[in-house]
Amino acid sequence: MSQPPRTRRKTAPAKLLAAAGAAAFLGWMAVVIVAIARTPEAGADSFESLAAVVDRSFHSDDIGGLERYVHGDGAGEYTSSLEDKLADAGFDAVRVTPDASRHVRTITLTATRRGHLVSCVSWETVQDEGRWFLDPVAPLLTDGCRTS
After folding, report:
1. Cα(81)–Cα(61) distance, integer angstroms
2. Where is pLDDT greater, at 67 or 14?
3. Please, are residues 98 and 105 in contact by the beta-carbon 8 Å criterion?
4. Residue 20: pLDDT band by 50, 70, 90 thresholds?
5. Do residues 126 and 135 touch, judged by C-beta distance below 8 A?
6. Element (H or E) spanning 113, and its range?
7. Nearest CA to 107 among 80, 136, 82?
8. What does R_g of the chain's alpha carbons equal in angstroms?
9. Whole-angstrom distance, CA of residue 120 vs CA of residue 31
10. What SS3 state is found at 41?
11. What is the dihedral of CA 79, 82, 88, 92, to 10 degrees?
12. CB 3.0 to 4.6 Å from 133: which of 55, 71, 85, 143, for a disulfide?
């Protein structure tokens, strides 16, 4: 008579290793899900909020923090370059001026040293999926960089 085939049973170390692997995978998935859920949404919820973020970023020397408020690819490189150029300008005062009076809303940054203009940049703002962003492409025609 033939004997039934033997089934291989997992040994205790193999079961422990499989359980540890499953627990590690589930833990890793939980970390990824929490990280995604806690990542702030890019852009600002209103034009006014965007202007406030820009003002706060320049007055607290956190220009790199603007990265998630710049529209399009290359935001990190753009904010890094902007930071370098403003540092080279050597300003002692900065003013952020939002302008919602036009068809396209703008935010203008003027940097001065001893009351004289040393740098100016004006951004048009864009809305994308209900969020407000700075457009890194400078407006072609602007009178936003006035010193008065």
Report:
1. 14
2. 67
3. yes
4. confident
5. yes
6. strand 106-113
7. 136
8. 27
9. 43
10. coil
11. -90
12. 71
Quote the pTM value: 0.67
Report the relative pairing of strands 131-134 and 93-99 from DSSP bridges: unpaired
pLDDT higher than 80, residue 112: yes
CA proximity to 54, closest of 104, 88, 116, 105 = 105
Query: pLDDT of 23-32, one tens digit each?
Result: 888 888 877 7
Listed in sequence order, the residues at least 6 apart from 119 whose beta carbon sits closer than 8 Å to its beta carbon are 85, 86, 89, 91, 109, 110, 111
Tokens 């320049």 sit on residue: 58
Cα dihedral 17→22→26→31 (10° resolution):
30
Tell me the residue length of the chain.
148
